[in-house]
Every structure is written in structure tokens, then in C-alpha cells.
Write a structure and sequence with these properties.
Chain B: It comes from Modicisalibacter muralis. The complex is a heterodimer of chains A (about 350) and B (about 350). Chain A is α+β, with helices and mostly antiparallel strands. Chain A has helices at about 1-15, 20-30, 35-40, 45-55, 65-75, 80-90, 95-100, 105-140, 150-180, 195-205, 210-230, 235-240, 245-250, 255-275; strands at about 280-285, 285-290, 300-305, 310-315, 320, 330, 335, 350-355. Chain B has three domains: about 1-35 and about 70-145 and about 325-335, ATPase, nucleotide binding domain (Nucleotidyltransferase, domain 5); about 155-185 and about 260-320, ATPase, nucleotide binding domain (Nucleotidyltransferase, domain 5, 2-Layer Sandwich), CATH 3.30.420.40; about 190-255, ATPase, substrate binding domain, subdomain 4 (Actin, Chain A, domain 4, Alpha-Beta Complex). A five-stranded mixed β-sheet of chain B has the order 3-2-1-9-10, sandwiched between helices. A five-stranded mixed β-sheet of chain B has the order 13-12-11-17-18, with helices on both faces. The chains are: A alpha+beta (about 350), B alpha+beta (about 350). The interface of A and B includes residues 44, 62, 67 and 85 of A.
């Protein structure tokens, strides 16, 4: 109690404001009420009222109730309750309520800073990831922006690429055999259509002298082609590779047919050697094209105008990327190459040639 | 997933979804929104769109043309119109997040009347979720009010709170972070307004609107005789003549008009005291009960309750915002896992 009085006196000296108890007591005496009357009116014990007037709050441990009693008392004697509460706050501060309720207050400021840092770091990480993803797309696509965002198409092209690799691997061993016409059908074979192969074989056999031989060559070419199509390429490769002769090149077909095929390729031997290094492209529509050869040299790159024709030379095998594939006709080894087989959903063909 | 991401950019909110007013407390910023729970709906053909929410909509109440309908989506402390409540909440939640970069997805604590049913609680929870909240916690209104008033709820001592809101009055005895006894009656500020309207019609033969009744209550309403006599001039439509008439009301008449709803509140308080365990009753007799909510602003209501119960009666500081502030404090304690005041069902 004496401590409270000292504090109150010190406060009086500095601010010149009366303490809440003094204000209430003065007003009560002015109205001529005694303590008991006030206690009855407020339904408080007389000891509590005495304590309020003496600024001794031992009877009322909870700050919320102290303030409440002071305000109720102030209203009763008709003075401004805000003044009394202000005087109380000046003496005892306001923070006792907060301290009472939640200890979280103490740790809140650092946690808020932490939350901000967390938000910032998260944002940076997200931005970084987005940036990395974009970079990855760029590097994966080369400069081709057509394929951006078409994941499905991309996958399709890749699987086709692999298929093509398998096919041409099968064909490669056949080239080892005799480097002829016979190796050609597997490429357009992608169409899986006997009629298409017939046409191709027919085109190829325009040059042979006798029609009869061409007929034989046709069937000879188709048979191993079908065989390699039906069985996985891996199967076809070992079947053909051990044999260096044309006889063994088509083990599934009859011997006479294999012989006929050999005669047909002899007729075409000369032009095939020259064609192996060159590719001819005819652009009926504008197309972005990029071709690498075996030495990884870029032998053709850029946007080709509609109606142009390009013939390029390089070391096979070639790695090609042809945009707008439907508007491009391609000829390799004097054979038209069916680009549709390599084309993904975005109309971009990616494949290897001449392996 | 996206809600969680957006949550990083949203603040936690405590919402006092009241019948009369909706208050929002933002963690770390205090009370940022205090608007009437009113939504104005514009009907054009089959399209219903929100014309105004909050203060603007309240101004339209009772003054709307045919195609606009000003609705109070909350009634008696619970949701009366689910979709409109959801839109209102959405509007308010957006309003307290200034940033428009991301749609806010805050954690939300909503105060519910203590006697509300499971269905009513779920409706409130779902409408908060529909308004974009990523997590919804519910707290009983008297508990939030007690925390907001600064009562020692976590101590082994009884504290009694009487929260007179717009639609309901909640009476609760709280000890050790739990509600020992609670009672909710559907009498509140709205019932006071209705009582005034009925009184004016009976004694003056005139019809006054909701807004006028509320103004009368705020300016001259009182709950206990003996204060100074106050008067107010009001205008209403005379029922017999059909013409708007002006007349004067005084505070005694309003006291008379409010007798019925006040009697219900007193009866509920007495019944709570009767049913409280003796130890807690002794604590309450020692310290008294605390009045919160808009009803606590009715002149001399503390005197009336003190007279009727013989207990000390305290009006909480800033009684209108007590519940929202208490909810805010509870929100700050959510992260402490020991906090058992909240239910998420």
C-alpha cells in the first residue's frame, strides 16, 4: 500500500494528474455519499471500494475487473470514465491484459520476420524453378519454339525417333550385306502398308532393265521388309548380320527370290553410291530446318522459303529437324522419304537418316 | 496445394460473423473491418448479382426499388441465406487483403453462438471455406468475448460473460479454458428494435422502419429508470391517415417498450446463476459478471442487471469489438497445440 502511494505521489509530481482513487473519492465526497452507499450501489464489498479509492488493488487481482470497477464507479458518481481509466493506465500501464492472456505476444515479432523471410525464400525458389524449367525447355528444343508446351507431342516424336533408330539399325546390317536397294524399303516401311512399299519398290525399280527382274526384286524386297516389321528390329538385326552374302540377307524368303533381289541391286549399284552423301529437300511451304551430319557439323540451318529446293551433302548418318513437315518433300538415295512417319503432333519431324 | 501456396500471402483472420455487424480482426493488425452484415442483391432477369455489401448495403435497407433486395443473411446468430453469406464473407475477406496479386486464402477463425446446432456450425464453416478460407476454426462466442474482455479464462476461477449481440444473447460461465455452463437466447439488438417498432405502432398508430427503430434505441434507449429524460423526433407513416407524421418519443417510453426483451435476458442470466456449481457461483459473486456486445451499450443495462442479480456488473472496454478481439487472441494461440478452445467440426 505504501508502495502504491509512493508511486502515486511520484506520478503527481511529474504529470500533475490526480490518481483514479483520488478523483473518485473527491467526487464521492462532493456528492455527499459514503463508502457503504457506493458499495451497495455497485454490489461490491466495502473493502474493495476502499481499496479503489486508495489505489490499492490487492483485492482485485485481475486487471480487467479493476478497470471495470473503476469505470462503474466513475459512472456512478458521474465523472468521465475515460479520464479515470486513463489515470489508471498512466499508473499501471495497459500491457497487463495482454501479458495475462497470451505468452505468444512475446515471440510474435521474430516469428513475423521469420514468416516474411519464409515467404520471400519461397517466392525466390518458385521463380528459380520456373526459370530453370524455361532454360531446360530452351536447351532441349534447340531454337525451335514451336514445340514449347507440347509435352505430349514431344514424347511422341521421341518414341518415333527411337523406332526409326531401331529400323535403320536393322537396315544398316543389310547395307553391310550389299549396300543396295534392298536396304531402302525398311525406311518407308513405316507406313506398314504393302501397297506403299510396292510403289516405292516400283519407283526404285524404274531403272532396272527388265520388268521381270523388277517384279522379282519387288517381292524380294517386300518379304524381308515385312519380316523385320512383324518381328522386333532387334530380332531382325542378328538374323541378318552374321551373313555377308546376299543369299543370307533374306533368310526367311525363298532362295530364288533372294537371288533375284541380288540381280536387281546390281543394276542399281552405281547411283546408290553417290546418293549416300546427299539429301534433296523441296519446300512447298515455308519451313524451319536444321540438319547435322555425322561429324556434328550443321550443314543446313534456318528458315527455308516456300518453293525453294536445297540439295546438301555431308557425312551420313544425318540428324534432321524439319518444321512444318507436311510442306516438305525429301529425297535421299533417290528415294522419297515419308516425313509423316516421323512427325509429331506439332508437325515437326525429328529423326536420323542413313545410319 | 494452391490454397496452401496462396495462404503464404494471406493473413490469419478472426471473424465475428454477427447478425448485425461483421468484424474482422487481422493477426498483427487488429480490427480492420467493422461493417453491417447486409448485402444488397440486384436481380436482372435470372441473373442475381451483388450490388453492395456492408455500410452501402445497409443504407439501402428498406429503401430499395423492385430489382434490388437488401438482405441480412444472418438471422438469430446463424446463417439464414447460405449463398449470400458466402458472397458477403468473400467480399469482406478480399477487402481486408489489399493485395490483388493472389486471391487470399487465409486461415479463419469464426465465432459461433454456443447453442448453435451441428448443422448451423457446418453451414458457417462451409460458407467460410467457400469464401476462400483454407482452414476454418470455430470458437464459441462467449469464450471469445471473455478472452476479448481480458478475463482470466485459463485460471481455475469462474468468470461470467453476458454477450448481448444483434440476434442472440449468450450467457456463459467459463473456467479453465472451458465453458462450464452456457445459454443462448434469441433475444438481442434486433428484438429491441422490433419491440420499439411494435410500441410505436401501438401507441402512436404509426409505422417506422428498422433503421429508424435502431436510431431511437441508440439515441434514447435505456434499460433502467431514473436516468435523465431524453427525447427524439421521429417520422413514421400514420396507419390511419396513410400520411407520414412527425412525433416525439422519450426515454421512458422506450424503457417501457424494451421491458419484454430485457426481462428475457434477465431471466436467462438468473437461470445461469442458478445452475452454476457453487464454487464458481462464489467466484462470480465476488467479481461479478462482464457485459459485452452491442447490447452492453444500451444505457444503464448494467444497473438493471446489477439490481436484478445483486452482483457487480462490469461493461467490457469497447464491448462491440470484444468478440472479434478475443477471437484474434485465440487465433494467435492456435499455433500452440495445447489450445483446446477451438473445434474444427
Amino acid at each position: 500500500m505504501s508502495e502504491a502511494q509512493e508511486r502515486q505521489e511520484a506520478h503527481l509530481d511529474t504529470a500533475g494528474l490526480p490518481s483514479p482513487g483520488q478523483m473518485l473519492k473527491r467526487e464521492r465526497e462532493r456528492l455527499g455519499m459514503n463508502l457503504d452507499e457506493v458499495a451497495v450501489q455497485l454490489n461490491l464489498r466495502p473493502a474493495v471500494v476502499t481499496g479503489l479509492e486508495a489505489d490499492n488493488y490487492d483485492q482485485v487481482p485481475v486487471a480487467a475487473y479493476r478497470r471495470g470497477y473503476l469505470r462503474a464507479y466513475a459512472r456512478l458518481v458521474g465523472i468521465d470514465e475515460a479520464k479515470v481509466v486513463d489515470a489508471y493506465n498512466a499508473q499501471h500501464g495497459r500491457n497487463d491484459i495482454e501479458r495475462k492472456i497470451s505468452p505468444v505476444h512475446a515471440t510474435k515479432p521474430p516469428s513475423r520476420v521469420g514468416a516474411w523471410i519464409f515467404k520471400l525464400v519461397t517466392l525466390l525458389v518458385i521463380l528459380g524453378l520456373i526459370g530453370l524449367t524455361l532454360l531446360w525447355w530452351q536447351s532441349r528444343q534447340g531454337n525451335d519454339l514451336l514445340g514449347l508446351g507440347e509435352l505430349g507431342g514431344q514424347d511422341a516424336v521421341q518414341s518415333l525417333d527411337e523406332q526409326a533408330n531401331g529400323e535403320s539399325a536393322a537396315g544398316d546390317t543389310a547395307i553391310d550385306g550389299d549396300a543396295t536397294n534392298e536396304t531402302l524399303p525398311p525406311l518407308p516401311e513405316q507406313g506398314n502398308d504393302l501397297g506403299l512399299v510396292d510403289e516405292n519398290a516400283g519407283d526404285a525399280s524404274d531403272q532396272p532393265t527388265s520388268d521381270a527382274v523388277a517384279e522379282d526384286a519387288e517381292t524380294g524386297a517386300v518379304e524381308p521388309g515385312n519380316a523385320s516389321d512383324a518381328t522386333p528390329p532387334a530380332d531382325a538385326a542378328p538374323a541378318t548380320s552374321p551373313s555377308e552374302t546376299a543369299d543370307a540377307a533374306a533368310p526367311t524368303s525363298a532362295d530364288d527370290m533372294a537371288g533375284a533381289a541380288a540381280t536387281a541391286t546390281e543394276a542399281q549399284d552405281a547411283p546408290a553410291v553417290i546418293d549416300e552423301r546427299s539429301i534433296t529437300l523441296v519446300f512447298s511451304e515455308e519451313s524451319w530446318t536444321e540438319i547435322f551430319d555425322a561429324t556434328d557439323e550443321r550443314i543446313l540451318v534456318g528458315l527455308q522459303p516456300a518453293g525453294s529446293q536445297v540439295t546438301i551433302e555431308g557425312e551420313p548418318p544425318f540428324r534432321l529437324t524439319i518444321g512444318n513437315a507436311t510442306g516438305v518433300e525429301m529425297t535421299y538415295l533417290n528415294q522419297p522419304v515419308d516425313l509423316a512417319a516421323y512427325t509429331g503432333g506439332n508437325n515437326v519431324a525429328r529423326f536420323n537418316l542413313g545410319e | 496445394m494452391f490454397k496452401r501456396l496462396r495462404g503464404l500471402f494471406s493473413s490469419d483472420l478472426s471473424i465475428d460473423l454477427g447478425t448485425a455487424n461483421t468484424l474482422i480482426y487481422v493477426r498483427g493488425r487488429g480490427i480492420v473491418l467493422d461493417e453491417p452484415s447486409v448485402v444488397a442483391i440486384r436481380q436482372s432477369g435470372n441473373m442475381r448479382s451483388v450490388a453492395a455489401v456492408g455500410v452501402d448495403a445497409k443504407r439501402m435497407l428498406g429503401r430499395t426499388p423492385g430489382n434490388i433486395n437488401a438482405i441480412r443473411p444472418m438471422k438469430d446468430g446463424v446463417i439464414a441465406d447460405f449463398t449470400v453469406t458466402e458472397q458477403m464473407l468473400q467480399h469482406f475477406i478480399r477487402k481486408v487483403h489489399q493485395s490483388t496479386f493472389l486471391t487470399p486464402s487465409p486461415r479463419v477463425l469464426v465465432c459461433v453462438p454456443c447453442m448453435s446446432t451441428q448443422v448451423e456450425r457446418r453451414a458457417i464453416k462451409e460458407s467460410a471455406e467457400g469464401a476462400g478460407a483454407r482452414e476454418v476454426f470455430l470458437i464459441e462466442e462467449p469464450m471469445a468475448a471473455a478472452i476479448g474482455a481480458g478475463l482470466p479464462v485459463e485460471e481455475a476461477q469462474g468468470s461470467m460473460v453476458v454477450d448481448v449481440g444483434g440476434g442472440t444473447s449468450e450467457i456463459a460461465i467459463i473456467s479453465l479454458n472451458g465453458v462450464v455452463y452456457s445459454e443462448s437466447i434469441r433475444v438481442g439488438g434486433d428484438r429491441f428494435d422490433e419491440a420499439i417498432t411494435a410500441y410505436v405502432r401501438r401507441h402512436y398508430g404509426s409505422l417506422i422502419g428498422e433503421a429508424t427503430a435502431e436510431r431511437i434505441k441508440e439515441e434514447i434507449g435505456c434499460a433502467y429508470p431514473g436516468g435523465e429524460l431524453r427525447e427524439i423526433d421521429v417520422r413514421g407513416r400514420n396507419l390511419a391517415e396513410g400520411i407520414p407524421r412527425s412525433f416525439t418519443l422519450n426515454s421512458h417510453e422506450i424503457l417501457d417498450a424494451l421491458q419484454d426483451p430485457l426481462a428475457s435476458i434477465i431471466a436467462a442470466v438468473k437461470s445461469a446463476l442458478e445452475q452454476s456449481p457453487p464454487e464458481l457461483a462464489s467466484d462470480i459473486a465476488e467479481r461479478g459478471l462482464v457485459l459485452t456486445g452491442g447490447g452492453a451499450l444500451l444505457r444503464d443495462i448494467d444497473k438493471l442487471i446489477a439490481e436484478e442479480t445483486g452482483l457487480p456488473v462490469i461493461i467490457a472496454e469497447d464491448p462491440l469489438t470484444c468478440v472479434a478481439r478475443g477471437g484474434g487472441k485465440a487465433l494467435e494461440m492456435i499455433d500452440q497445440h495445447t489450445f483446446e478452445l477451438l473445434s474444427s467440426d
